[in-house]
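May I ask for whichever protein you like with its backbone structure tokens?
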Amino acid sequence: MSAATEKIGDGTRCILAPTGNRVRILEEQPRRNEMMKKPPEKPQRVAARSPAKPSAAAAAVIMRCDVSADRSSDSSTSASSSGTGSIVKSAKTASSRRKENGNGVVRAAEGVLALSLSSAVPLPVKRCDWITPTSEPLYTSFHDEEWGVPVHDDVKLLELLVYSQALAELSWPLILSKRAVFRKVFNDFVPTSVANLDDKRLLSVRLLSEPKVRAIVDNAKQLLKIQQEFGSFSNYCWRFVNHKPIKSGFRYARQVPGKTPKSDLMSRDLMQRGFRCVGPTVVYSFMQVAGLVNDHLVTCYRYNQCSHDLDKVPTAEEEDA
């Protein structure tokens, strides 16, 4: 392969194209030479156009908009600053008051809290020592509503006498839980009905031992005789305390006796009249539950209530009337 050269002007140049040996006339070099000989042209500056002046009406509108915008921004700034200032001021005032009050604020809050708690949570009621938080509700209700309340109804007195006799074999909570059974078996303790009960039918129930069941029937028969003699079983019982209940005024449960001279006297008289299973301890339990004696402890809330009820006890003349 040969290389071809061509003399162009003052310079030569080899031409070797990929398609073969060809001689090409190049015009690039003369153009470059001419451009190098000419002086460089200075760039022309383009004059910036000044904005057209707005008309008088347009200028007035623009000025009004600017003034209103300035006023709104000033008002919002002042409002925000005033709001922030008031909040800061109130916070500072509250903190200063707290600092001035010191423990007074805490004490006042504690007082309000204690007042709210005292109004929401009732205080526990103080009862006799033998009534505890674990006592059965039935037993607690009996203490609050019946035990120690003066009784003058013969039917109710016979019922309470039977329960006092049953205490030798059963406890008060157990007796109260079987109260409905007692009333059904003994015909609601109506003296005439109890006196005519069949011993065999009563023994089949097995509510109490045989001696206790037979004693209840026999005592009901003797109670009918007392009604004929004294007008009522109530008159007979209340005459042992002069128709006025005895206020024991004990403070502690250990001070409450199992029997007293009054119960001894009443027990002997009952046995002389044919009553059975009526020892001094049984009789004193009967006197307590029937309200002949107020043995609620003085610390029990029922002591004053029963004492108030004792003032309403009718006399023998009032009962006969």
Remarks:
- Residues 1-26, 73-109 have pLDDT under 50 and may be disordered.
- The chain is about 60% helix and 5% strand.
- Strands lie at 4-8, 11-15, 246-247, 293-294.
